[in-house]
């Protein structure tokens, strides 16, 4: 084999090796992710209290659980509504949750961020019929018509 041919083969192998290394590096970088950033940016608790184990508190629980479980399944932006029977007939509770799309949160990261949002609302807005929390990587809000 001529020297020129050996050089061409060597360059082909080294460029092929570099391509393989580059592909592996891209796959590695694209699959490595940081956990969601759950730093609290803001939180608001409504002024109207509710009774624990009441129809409205049960409806809020269903709304918040629905948001937590389904937001990542709906392109990281989900609305829901549940009804309950109040003193003046049927009433509605609603909720919305979002997870960051830039950078995109993976489904399990969205779920984890919304789990933290739910805990923060429970801890800071105990027994209120409306609240919202904005974390760095997700947002959750809910509210109910007054009983």
UniProtKB/TrEMBL annotation:
It comes from the Eukaryota. This is Uncharacterized protein. The lineage of its organism: Eukaryota, Viridiplantae, Streptophyta, Embryophyta, Tracheophyta.
